[in-house]
Amino acid sequence: MPAISKIRFTNVVYEDGNKRYNDELFHFDGHNGAILLENGGGKTVFIQSAIQAILPHEELAGRKIKETLSLENGPAHIAIEWILSERPRRYVVTCISLFLTATGMDSYRYVYDYPVLDPDAIDRIPFVKESAGHLRAADRGEIHDYYHQMTVKRMNAKLPATMKDYKKILENDYHIIASEWERIAKINSSEGGVESFFDECKTTSQLFDRLLIPTVEDAMGGYEQGEFANNFEMHRDSFKKYKELKEKIEENKKILVELDQYVLRYAAMDTKQMAYAAAQAETKAYWLLVNDQKNEENGKLSQWHQQMAACDEQFQGLARKKESLHIAKEKQEQSVLETKLRLVEEDVEFKEKLVRSAKENYYSLRLADYKQQWSSAEERMNYVQRELERFGNTQEEDALREAWIHNGGQIRSIYSKMEQEWQTEEEKLIQELSAHQSRMNLEETILNELSSELEALNKQLIEHRSIVQAREKDKDELRAHVLTNPAVESMEGSMSEWMQRVQKLDEGHVQLVQKNKALASSKEESASQLEGVSESLKIAYVERASAEHKLEAFKKEHQSILDQIASYRPSWGRISSVYEKMSSIEERLKEDIEKLQLEKEAYLLKERLAFRYIDDYSSQSTFFADVYVAGLVDKWRNQFTLLETGIHYLQSLHVIEQAMTHPLWSVTLITTEAEVELVTSKLRQYAEDMQFPIQVISSQEAANLANRDTPVAVNDSAWVEPQHWRDNVENAEFVSWKQAISLKGEEVRTARKEKESELQRSSDLQASFGRFLLEYPLEVVHEMERQVALQRESVRELEAQEDTIKKSIRQVDQEIQQINFVIDEQKVEMVQLQQWIEKGQKYAELGLEIVTLNGAIDQLVEQSDDQQNKLVTRQRSMEQAKLQNESLKSRMIHLRTEKASLRSQDLYIELGDVQPIEANHSLDWLKTERKDLHLKLNRISQGRQQLEAELSHCRASRSTLEREMSKLRLEQADLNLNETLAFSVMGEEQMSQLLSELKEHESRLTRDKEELVRVEKRFDELTTRIKLLIEQYGNTHKDERPQTFTESLSVVDVQVQSEDTRLHQQKSALQQQYTQIQAQLSKIGEVVDYLNQYKIMHRFENPLIQAAFITQEQKAEFPYDRMKWVRKSVTVLTNLTKELEAEESSVKKAKLHFIDFCRKQIKDVKMRDMAEQGVENKDNYLDLTQFQQKMHSRIERVNHVAEETMRTHNQQLEQYIIHVHSHLKLIASELRDIPNKTRVRVEDQWRHIYSFQIPEWDELEAKEHLRKHLEWILAELDRGHYRDDSGQEVKSTVRKEIEKWLDTKQLLQIVLQDHPMRVSCRKVTNENNVTKASFSWEQSNNWSGGEKWSKNMTLFLGLLNYVAEKRQHIQANMKRHRTVILDNPFGKASSDHVLSPVFFIAEQLGFQIIALTAHAEGKFLKDYFPVVFSCRLRQAANGNKLVMTKEKEINQAYFRDHAPFSLERLGDVKQMELFV
Prior knowledge:
It is a single chain. By secondary structure, the chain is α+β, with helices and mostly antiparallel strands. Among the domains are: 3-201 and 1377-1466, 3-Layer(aba) Sandwich (N-terminal domain of mukB); 582-684 and 716-774. The chain is built from 36 helices and 21 strands. Strands 9-6-5-4-1-2-21-20-3-19-18 form an 11-stranded mixed β-sheet, with helices on both faces. Helix 7 packs parallel to helix 32, helix 8 packs parallel to helix 20 and helix 35 (1452-1458) packs across helix 36 (1460-1466). The longest helix is centred in the N-terminal third of the chain and has 164 residues, at 227-390. Keywords: Coiled coil. Residues 327-361, 440-467, 544-606, 781-818, 878-905, 930-1032 form a coiled coil. This is Chromosome segregation ATPase.
């Protein structure tokens, strides 16, 4: 880990915003530094804030950073600059900007490494911005933009997205290790945290358990706390299932035995069940047959209801038709009346025209008469007036004669003109009469033709209706011949049913023929299959026997090896299969052989040692340690003045007790002082053969040693000699010792031979076991068992297949027989249906012919009606033509009468020969004039008075006539009077005739009008009645409209009457049919009721039961005496029921026994449920045997899996033990390595401050201890201590206990078997020396407060060093390459002899110490902290807040002597005066 160069705080606000760091930079340049802060000034805040740059959002003393800092007014920016390398100098800055969000607190993390004088160094990061002449902290957006721009601009600038990535970058790239700083944070949880850190480690065991072992585990890569507990829980089921699986295998075998016994019992019941099932099938067949007949009758009844409903509906339809027919008749009558009304209206209109024409002619003649009279009066008046004017003048006779002739000529002219007009009119009337006569002749011809056609149509109608009646009779005969109940059934419906039935029978026939062919083919194929299956079955029998023979051979070998391992280890006698503990057996045999080999070698060594002593010392009478030297002494004794062994010397002085004070008498030779060198020199010549170092002393020195009461120490170290060196000083003891070692040697030899025998036995067993596993590996055994099961299953399947094929062939034969019966029946039915269909088709043809004829009749009726209407129309036209002809004849008569009347007048006769002269005056004028002329010629004259009177009369007449004409015009203003009509001579007769005609026409018009009123009244009444009938029809029939008829209503009426008769007959027939159906249902109901009594008892209504086959003869006989057949079948069924109940009772007891066995002796819930459910749910022998085979196969598979699982579990257990043991070995190794992290170099030698004594252990014994411990855990957990009242395991408690039992410290105690681990530590003096004396951990905790702090700090720094080196390889390329920040770490340690060792050790370990303290005084600050910052809170400008300010003091002398470049970088040459 690099050292800290600078720490920068910007906008770090705390204590509710009352205290703050605006923008402060603390420069250490990698050296120790002290920050002086008064109590309450924020030392903990400083440390927690600084740690944020390494551990974002880290808590300190349980306080979160967002609770420590006030971030409401802006983000807090914290940065630390680290020194990565000294030459060249390179830095890395780690920054964090903390800010608040809507959901809490967040931060930006920034890392950037750079060289010296980099423009983006820590002091150049824009944590502050200038705004309006003032500096302010950069907000989160601004600083994020800067960080982002740096990542774009500099490739070595990083902005990690997550805190995990941030820590990973710091650790992997810059060796700033998070776990190390987590410990630093922990130790700074309180002031003087080092003491509290070690307060819980008073004893050695507490130190190991609470500090050292957890530290080692945390530092180990790939290990997680609670790993063993997790693995144990993961494999716990595997660990404890071994016994369960073994029990499961035994249970499974018992299940098969019990199941086989149950199946045998069930087989006997199955025979009875088959007989009962056959009786059931027969009874069900009758039950189905009678129910089919019941359903058939119910179907008939249902059809009867439908037919009755249809009949009722037809009655309703007929009622609607009757009502509609009534309405149609009324409408027809209305139509006739409407036609009559139209004709009457035409007659009235025609008569009105005649009346009007007569009136117009009559009044025109009267008007003409008035006009003529007026004209006559006017001319007479003019004539009289002329005469009055001429009165008094006389005319000559000639003139009178001339006037008379002239007058006659004019009258003749008028008469000629009138005759000419009459002639023209007569010719015209003759033409009109001729035209009218032609028309009348034509009308008469048409009338005759229409009458002939109408007669022909009526004749055709009669013929067609006769044919229809004949065809209807033919249809009735066909219905009566074909239909069973013609009154009820319809030919059309039956025809449809016959056609469908024929089609269905045809299709069914094809299907049955195809099915017969398929069945025949299937039978042939089944026969072929049966032959093949029989051959396969023979082969399967042979293969099954072979497989069973191989399996039996394996079982013998297996039992043999089981006997061997059981005799080898009695505890293995409970093993039912070697495979369940195969790994344990192999591992145990391997371990036993290794152990026995080691024990054998140990016994050999002991034997060699024991017999070596015998071989060496058996010939000695006085003990001397080195036998070879003792022999030399015996040889050399005569060559020296004095030469004897130390023991012999003590014996000679009788001071053998002195051997206890000096341990080397047994290897000491005594000679004279002068001969010491000579003896020594001679011994050196034989040094190669010497066994022990030999001490040669003079007799004088021997006397001095013999007279001493205290042991002799050599080089401050006491000698420890073998015990027999002391015990064999006396000869008697020496002899006894030799006898003892001889006996011990024999014992050792015997033990060695026994070990060899055990070793041979183990080796032989291992070899036999290995050969057995090689020959019969579990996979092979499983395969053998699988093959046996497969062969047995194959035989069973083939046997079942053979039975199935035989049964299939029997079923096919039965089906073919049934199909043939059905085919024969269908053929007979097809013939009958074909005959019916032919008659039905003839019936349909007759129906079509009738329909065609009815259509023709309708057309004929329609044509007849048209002809009748035409005839009536022509008759009326003929009548009108006659009237018009009579009118013309009357006019002709009047014209001729008038003409004859004129010619008979005297004046006409008189003027017959007169030459006509064009008249200037009217006839009346001329007649008056002629009369006057006649009088004048006869000389008869009138007086003036007479003329005047006549003039006055003329004038009055003219006035009267004018009034009459006006009156006439007014009265007859609606008539078109002929103003130009001239009044003829016969005018009066014409007027009289016209008046007579007018009266006649008016009389006829009156009669026609009366008829019109009567017809209109009848028409209106009929219209109202029709409307009322239609409304009543709509109300009655749900707003339906009345039916309309295209046929003649008379035909419809006949049809309605026929339909009414037919429906009444049908209803009567339906009533009879209902009586018959009810009678049949009553008889069938008795049979059904009888069967229903036994339906529940015998369950023959079960759809799973297949009905027996009933022959056609039986079906034919059954309806005649249903009850006899049913009673017979039920009696057989009842007798079989009793027999079956007895068998079922036996099977039920067997089932209860089996279930009771399962519930009491089978612990496997799934297997127990499967066995119970299989037995309970399998209700037929086939399913039960299949279940039996499946259980055999399943249990064999389960046993295979169980054996394999047991082997796997055993392997897992062994692997788990190996894993745990390896971990414990690694822990012990790492614990032994920790003291190396506290060693310091003193006087060119490495000296350890701490020493850990971790006992060694035997690996085999350790694994055995672990195995027993795991077994104990499993047994303990199986007890009821860890279950609640409901029997459920309390997982939290179990987990807690497992973690405790499998904790590393607990496991270490298990393998160490209570051999203690020890810790010893040495003091470091203020001269930086390490004492030789070591002290236990408990003793060190009784040192003074400062010494205890010193040794605790040393261990703490060593542990930091250990953790860091485990996490990352440390390259110590700088003097200080580690950093620790401490909150008031000194506590009781203030004296130099206490602090100096700590800082000495820290320097040796490469630590930079940054301490926060309130101690402003003390020599130790000057001695150990060359950089000191004095921090004080001052009032801000507003006076409400406190701002942190600092003053830096550096020890210039230190830097000048040790780090002059740092002095330049620190930029301060002022001599530190704080401590002067």
